Known about the structure:
It is a single chain. The protein contains 10 helices and 13 strands. It is α/β, with parallel strands linked by helices. It has one domain (5-164, 198-225, 267-280): NAD(P)-binding Rossmann-like Domain (Rossmann fold), CATH 3.40.50. It has a 7-stranded parallel β-sheet, sandwiched between helices. A two-stranded parallel ribbon has the order 7-10. Strand 1 (5-9), helix 1 (14-24) and strand 2 form a beta-alpha-beta unit. The radius of gyration is 18 Å and the shape is globular. It starts with a strand and ends with a helix. The mean pLDDT is 93.
Amino acid sequence: MPMGRLLITGASGYLGQRVAYFAQQTTIWNKIYSQSWRNPALAGEHVACDLANQAQLQALLDRIQPNAIIHTAAVTPAMGAAMTNEALWAVNVQATATLAAWAAQHEARFVHVSSDAVWGGRDTAYTESDVPAPIHPYGASKAAGEALVEALNPAAAIARTSLLYGQNPLDPNTTMALAMVRGERDGALFTDEMRCPVFVEDVAQALLELAQQPRLYGIFHLVGPQILSRFELGQALLAWNGIDSTGLPAGNTSASGLRRPSRVVVDNRATQSQLSTILRSIDDVTRR
């Protein structure tokens, strides 16, 4: 039986596009609303809304009355100079709080997408119960968003992700590695910055599964089971796309002088035991 109206925020973003696409492939939802601040071609009915405008966001929620919300929208480092402290606060914190509170008040399912950037790195893996300890503004904004969701909507699901990759369209990590190996972009991929990259389609499917399962609440780790450095990830993604990675520049965080999370290994075993969606390793995905 169809479950009602689904709102996907950030539907023009890399993850949001795939969530909207897969939502459209099912008969689970009576209506799918794809939110973005502009009007691109999106799956579902597009609803324009500036999430930094809290009055506009509240009006949108009251108008469409969603039964479930998957909140993928965020201000991220990929936005460059547009990632100001004001933008981080308005979207990653205030808009998240507005969505979480509205969903709680209207008994709507709320699934919030967070990030492994809530941590600064350590030798041992992070589990769902580890307390966030961010070391930069983006991570701090995501940690604040998580805390507000937990306080305002205890029945919500908070899904932490890591580096996303995919082919349709190419993900930002592949695009960056490709530009570097072609000499079109300066910089290097770090060999000492470890992550658990995850296939964007697996994350999209897992988010839709969480949206359909109100019994699942709290923290979930939607990450891959394989640990790779950013450099190793770049090599793997180029190989997957049939591109020679010779000449891909390598570096390390200590030499860069940048303050960045180093080894952020996220354990997904507890999450995987509760989901039917398989969060695959990059080796499994690229061999298919």
